[in-house]
């Protein structure tokens, strides 16, 4: 294959503007740096022997940070090719060819140039189409490396895999995009959209009011002693009055039963000579039993009323006296209210 050397300015542009290789600016060239660089180069070559290319690449990169060497850069380009970073390998081979040619190392320059031509058709490319290229202060980065304006809209060599592209500008909302570039010379175009206006600083969020506990109905005020006493006395009157009425009814029933029993026809003492007299006395006995039950109920009501009187709120020793008695004139209930 006949080599096609590129103009030196084009090689420099591809290597520096695209920034796929490591930045190799002004490096301190001390003896210690050079010794460290040589040690890292040696470690990298050992990794190559066991085909640990990722480990070899990292050591070559660190070596170049300490000391710029055409030889190390050539090994790094070869390592990039093995790990699939063809764009980086292509640019590094071109740089080695240019530097070797300038240094008079023609054989090394020819070899590096041939290696670059072998992988040139396999290099994938990424084109960034900027929606507002004239926006003041617009900054584009790819994988945290600045992408100069000269690269916008140009199909630039790119390593395969995922890349992160960001766009930012003063007073605009930044945009972050992800794009995956394929292998074997694939070409991908990524459109960077217009950046939205940055709105004013958002107001601090207002805390939502906390949930209030359910409103409970107001509690009824406690009854005053006078009201409680009045209610208690009313209960005494109701219960006691019912008891007195029951006792009165029972007494009347007893008297009526006794009169019926004594007036049974054909009966003298405990002996009855007629069936009607016998039946009358049996009815009188039944009525007497009912009257006795009514009397007991009435008495219980009267006693209950007395208990209510004693325990009623506001009752004092002076007004808690309650008496029930039977006199010749009938049933008598006494109590102070």
Q: How would you characterize the overall build of this protein?
A:
The longest helix has 38 residues. This protein has three domains: 113 residues, Serine Threonine Protein Phosphatase 5, Tetratricopeptide repeat, CATH 1.25.40; 69 residues, Sandwich (Immunoglobulin-like), CATH 2.60.40.1120; 110 residues. The N terminus is likely disordered. The strands form four sheets. It has a four-stranded antiparallel beta sheet with strand order 3-2-5-6, with no helix packed on it. A three-stranded mixed beta sheet has the order 4-1-7. The protein has a two-stranded antiparallel ribbon with strand order 8-9. 49% of the residues lie in helices and 16% in strands. It has 337 residues and is of the alpha+beta class.
Question: Any key phrases for this structure?
Answer:
337 residues; alpha+beta; Serine Threonine Protein Phosphatase 5, Tetratricopeptide repeat; Immunoglobulin-like; 11 strands
Sequence of strands across the biggest β-sheet = 3-2-5-6
Could you name the ranges where pLDDT drops below 50 across 5 or more consecutive residues? Answer: 1-28, 315-320, 326-332
CATH class of the largest domain: Mainly Alpha
Rg calculated over all Cα atoms: 59 Å
The percent of residues in helical segments reads 40-55%
Gap between N and C termini: 135 Å
The sequence of SSEs as H and E is HHHHHHEEEEEEEHEEHEE
How many domains? The number is: 3
CATH topology of the largest domain: Serine Threonine Protein Phosphatase 5, Tetratricopeptide repeat
Envelope shape: rod-shaped
- What is the count of helical runs? 8
Count every beta strand, where a strand is a DSSP E run of 2 or more residues.
Answer: 11
How many strands, which pairing sense, and closed or not: the largest β-sheet?
4 strands, antiparallel
What percentage of the residues does DSSP assign to strands (E)? Answer: 15-25%
CATH hierarchy: architecture of the largest domain: Alpha Horseshoe
SSE class:
alpha+beta
Q: Write down the overall mean pLDDT.
A: 76
């Amino acid at each position: 294959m006949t080599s096609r050397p590129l103009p030196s300015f084009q090689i420099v542009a591809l290597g520096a503007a695209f920034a796929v290789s490591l930045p190799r600016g002004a490096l301190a060239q001390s003896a210690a740096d050079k010794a460290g660089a040589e040690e890292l180069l040696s470690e990298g070559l050992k990794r190559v022997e066991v085909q640990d290319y990722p480990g070899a690449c990292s050591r070559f990169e660190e070596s170049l940070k300490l000391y710029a060497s055409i030889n190390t850069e050539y090994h790094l380009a070869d390592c990039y090719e093995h790990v699939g970073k063809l764009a980086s390998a292509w640019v590094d081979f071109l740089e080695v060819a240019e530097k070797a040619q300038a240094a008079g190392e023609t054989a090394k320059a020819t070899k590096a140039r041939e290696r670059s031509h072998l992988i040139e058709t396999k290099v994938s490319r990424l084109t960034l189409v900027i929606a507002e290229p004239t926006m003041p202060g617009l900054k584009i980065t790819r994988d945290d490396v600045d992408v100069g304006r000269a690269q916008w809209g140009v199909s630039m060599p790119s390593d395969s895999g995922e890349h992160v592209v960001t766009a930012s500008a003063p007073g605009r909302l930044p945009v972050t995009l992800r794009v995956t570039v394929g292998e074997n010379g694939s070409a991908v175009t990524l459109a960077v959209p217009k950046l939205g206006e940055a709105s004013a600083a958002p107001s601090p969020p207002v805390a939502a009011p906390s949930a209030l506990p359910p409103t409970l109905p107001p509690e009824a005020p406690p009854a005053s002693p006078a009201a409680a006493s009045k209610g208690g006395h009313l209960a005494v009157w109701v219960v006691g009055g019912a008891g007195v009425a029951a006792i009165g009814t029972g007494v009347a029933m007893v008297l009526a039963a006794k009169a019926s029993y004594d007036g049974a026809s054909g009966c003298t003492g405990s002996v009855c000579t007629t069936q009607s007299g016998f039946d009358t006395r049996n009815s009188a006995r039944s009525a007497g039993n009912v009257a006795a039950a009514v009397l007991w109920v009435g008495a219980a009501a009267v006693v209950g009323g007395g208990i209510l009187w004693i325990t009623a709120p506001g009752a004092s020793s002076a007004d808690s006296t309650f008496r029930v008695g039977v006199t010749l004139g009938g049933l008598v209930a006494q109590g102070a209210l």
